[in-house]
Amino acid sequence: MSIARFSPFELVLLQSRSQVDTATLLLLAWVxxxxxxxxxxxxxxxxxxxxxxxxxxxxxxxxxxxxxxQDLQAIQLASEVLRKECxxxxxxxxxxxxITLATDDGTLSLANHYILxxxxxxxxxxxxxxxxxxxxxxxxxxxxxxxxSTEAYWQRHxxxxxxxxxxxxxxxxxxxxxxxxxxRQQQAQREEREQEKQRRRQEREEQTRAKRExxxxxxxxxxxxxxxxxxQRQRDxxxxxxxxxxxxxxxxxxxxxxxxRTSRALAVLGLTQGANRNDIRRAYRRMAQLHxxxxxxxxxxxxxALASARFQRIKNAYxxxxxxxx
Amino acid sequence: xxxxxxxxxxxxxxxxxxxxxxxxxCQHSALKQDAEAVxxxxxxxxxxxxxxxxxxxxxxxxxxxxxTHAAHWQGSxxxxxxxxxxxxxxxxxxxxxxxxxxxTLYNRWRRFRGTWxxxxxxxxxxxxxxxxxxALCMRLWAA
Lengths: 326, 143
What we know:
The complex is a heterodimer.
Chain A: H1 8-15, H2 19-33, H3 40-50, H4 61-68, H5 72-85, H6 88-102, H7 110-122, H8 127-138, H9 151-157, H10 159-251, H11 260-268, H12 277-291, H13 301-325
Chain B: H1 4-7, H2 16-25, H3 29-38, H4 42-65, H5 75-81, H6 91-111, H7 113-142
């Protein structure tokens, strides 16, 4: 036996003409309090509207105030009263009223999810009955309450935050990219400058080398020219001598002619001893085709010079053989 | 819905600093991620605290009413928010006790009202007579 005073709800309950109605009133007021975006006046009016048939016979305001304070002991007392004195039909009608009040604005707040389920357990309403009742009243199925303690819930309900975060991250990345780009550009410019310098140096070197090479080539050509000239001169001398000799030989008997030069000329044309005039002409044509300086026109001057020297030798051999055989 | 405070071994009134250190030392990566997403941001923590308070109340109610194994109290909510039954007696019984106590007091008052009235009037009269005699004596002595 306690010596505490009667609590406000106990007084209301004692004054009430129907304790069940008063207890129901408190629980419905609790549901309404957990429906967030409405004012107290609206709550009060809505509660009066729903409980017009109740026979409690007292003011609604004290009950609303108690519900506003979420007085756990009062709610517990109301629950006990309901459980003790509620019939099956009455509990269904209370469920009905609670669902109507909780889903007036089309949504069911998280707290009311749990409160409705608590009421259903308290009044002995099975999950199937509750879901069918909910479907009938709202046209939607009663879903499981969303889990506010997970990140997924907030990703669904607070997408702006994540968008903002993503934007910030992107901006940061862009800034980093821009800095990296600037760095790269600077690097590239530096490299370009270096390359430019190196290229200039190379060009200078190449120019000097080219000059040197040109001078060397010039020298080589001159030398070759000189050689060729001297060879020509020697050969000319030779021919003159031979012609003299031949002239002498014509005078002399034929058996005394030295065969050495003839066999060498034949070797130059790729023939052996005893080739006739026709063979010599054919061999000369083939060799001239092979070794003509015009064939080496596209190649280096050196090659052309060598080819012309070879051709000269072949021509000389042919001329000599033609003279001797003719 | 899980009780993040209980899982982080914190009280629901923990300061942000305590919360930060608890999240930092948390070994469970999924819980850590959720706690960071929910509790580290003030407005989310407010929303969570509101639901948390309601669900804790419901858990306490259920434990007192014997509804901790009911059909609508399942899963992580039931795991985290079911409290052991405390020894608070039924509010209704308490009310009945209190009312009956008040009634006996009232009846006793009604029953002995005549006697008490007589005693009270006699007492008051005696007191008044004593006071009057005392005043008279004082005046005589003074004169």
